[in-house]
């Protein structure tokens, strides 16, 4: 079974019926392995070999691989699933959905273990395809272009920011995004969203907080600005900065800032900034879900700073 192990290790713990036949493993033996719960059938003709993954909900990446294997070499991983493989953040992933573009009559829904295949029929040039560990996937640029047309504005800009921040493509590539969405449904809104992107944002939380502020007329002056004390020493870096008012907006991701060592580090940093005359506002994901919450807090801080300037004057 060494050959089975080698193949499955390269395919996220999966093997196909066709690959079994080439190895001389009969269909009856495969059925016996499934009945004996040594293997698990994920989809028709696709089996989970990795024992560590059995008995639990399969990771979305494994479901994507299963879908691609089940649908054959013409299947292309697209949209949300392509974003997953590229490491692009900002989407509300349906953890059980696998998005594949399939030709003709093959574009039909099917079960994938505890997930489901969402079929598409997209016209994709070979130049817009890349390979990721044996899977055909739309390029990062094409993936983002497709997502701009099927998501809301906040998700769309978050996806753009994420791809730009990670260097998957650059600002000078954005004209190609315009080209890829031209003439397609949703293009009018998507064109406007492209201009709202900023690759300096380090997370979807930062993107969404920035958009909330911009929508309410209190857009920050700078992003990822280095803050220095009177002696020139670096006090920190601000996710968002309103420079004249000396107001800083920080996006607090629970995964990072919730760790004990991060709490202490943030406390010392915030004290240093406060002593230098800066007001630090901290925002979480839940704050972005209420349209006026972040802008209201920012306005109050800006108004307070203006009163201080007036009194001092």
From TrEMBL:
SUPFAM superfamilies recorded: Restriction endonuclease-like
Task: Identify the stretch annotated as signal peptide in this record.
Answer: none
Question: In what residue span(s) does the DUF559 domain sit?
Answer: 239-285
Q: What name has this protein been given in UniProt?
A: DUF559 domain-containing protein
Organism lineage: Bacteria, Bacillati, Actinomycetota, Actinomycetes, Micromonosporales
């Amino acid at each position: 079974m060494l050959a089975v192990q080698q193949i499955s290790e390269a395919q996220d713990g999966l093997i196909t019926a066709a690959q079994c036949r080439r190895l001389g493993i009969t269909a009856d033996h495969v059925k016996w392995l499934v009945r004996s719960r040594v293997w698990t059938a994920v989809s028709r003709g696709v089996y989970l070999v990795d024992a560590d993954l059995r008995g639990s909900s399969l990771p979305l990446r494994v479901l994507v691989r299963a879908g691609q294997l089940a649908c054959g070499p013409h299947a292309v991983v697209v949209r949300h699933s392509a974003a997953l493989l590229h490491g692009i953040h900002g989407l509300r992933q349906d953890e059980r959905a696998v998005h594949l573009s399939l030709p003709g009559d093959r574009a039909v829904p099917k079960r994938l273990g505890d997930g489901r295949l969402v079929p598409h029929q997209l016209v994709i040039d070979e130049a817009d395809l890349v390979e990721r560990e044996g899977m055909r996937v739309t390029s990062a640029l094409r993936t983002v272009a497709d997502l701009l047309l099927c998501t809301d504005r906040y998700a769309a800009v978050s996806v753009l920011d994420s791809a730009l921040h990670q260097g998957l493509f650059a600002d000078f590539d954005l004209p190609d995004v315009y080209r890829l969405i031209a003439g397609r449904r949703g293009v009018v809104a998507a064109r406007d969203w492209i201009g709202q992107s900023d690759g300096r944002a380090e997370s979807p939380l930062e993107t969404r907080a920035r958009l909330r502020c911009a929508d309410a007329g209190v857009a920050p002056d700078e992003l990822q600005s280095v803050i220095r004390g009177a002696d020139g020493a670096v006090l920190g870096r601000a996710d968002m900065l309103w420079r004249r008012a000396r107001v800083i907006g920080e996006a607090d991701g629970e995964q990072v800032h919730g760790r004990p060592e991060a709490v202490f580090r943030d406390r010392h940093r915030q004290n240093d900034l406060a002593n230098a005359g800066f007001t630090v506002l901290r925002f979480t994901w839940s704050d972005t879900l209420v349209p006026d919450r972040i802008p209201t807090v920012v306005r109050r801080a800006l108004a307070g700073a203006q009163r201080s300037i007036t009194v001092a004057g």
